[in-house]
Amino acid sequence: MKVAAMWVRVMLASLSLFAAQQVFAAAKTLIELDGDTPKPGLATSWSKVKAGEYSFQLDPAGDLGKGVMVTPDAVKSSLESKLGATFGVKVSAKGAAAVSVVFTGDEKAFLAQVAKTKIRAGQDVALALESSTSEGSIRAKKTERPAGAGEVKALVIKSEGGVILAKAMDSKTPQVKSGDKVKVKGDIKGIKKNDSIFFKPGTKEGEVIVPAPGSLLQ
Asked: Which class for 179: exposed (0-12), middle (13-18), buried (19 or more C-beta within 10 A)?
């Protein structure tokens, strides 16, 4: 019986890993480069708006894997997380199928990095790589995406004594402003500096925010 149970656990772990690999393998880039010449990827067309700004028209049939279509939110999350530090990238939606990308630095180098940056379907990554720990009703899941309605996306500075110190990067609630440093009650196994966390503010214990039940995610 012990051998059978162990075999089942190994098979389940293998299936989860396979699902995750399928999602990542299906990830594509906005454009591709043929030498120095950009070619369509998830973007069917693009144009230089002005120095330091490009506009990309997204392919409505652009598949990120498992039938999930590309969206401005997926582009924003992927480009800002990967290119924000080096090129100061800021992405804004222009309707349901276009984005404006503002950047700093060398234009040729920027386009080369855009051609290397895969656009990820965050919700599929969460499903494929779901892992959780618990502290009461708090769960932790690994995922990449922008903040949802009423939610805060924050970058971890440190975690100590069941409290996470982080900087709010994207806030969809008036209780926390983007750029604010926040203390969040929660203990996520393996959390480290520069990881992203997501939470919906609930109550407060002094300066510490207690997330709404089940809303603290990694």
From this structure: exposed
pLDDT tens-digit map of 105-153: 999 999 999 999 999 875 433 443 343 333 333 344 444 578 888 899 9
**Where along the chain do its domains lie?**
16-121, 131-211
49 pLDDT higher than 90: yes
**Residue 104 in 3-state DSSP?**
coil
User: How many degrees, rounded to 5, is the angle at CA 105 between CA 100 and CA 107?
Assistant: 65
Query: If pLDDT is split at 50, 70 and 90, which confidence band does 76 have?
Result: very high
Overall fold of domain 131-211: OB fold (Dihydrolipoamide Acetyltransferase, E2P) (2.40.50)
Backbone phi, psi, residue 2, to 5°? -65, -40
CATH architecture of 16-121: Alpha-Beta Complex (3.90)
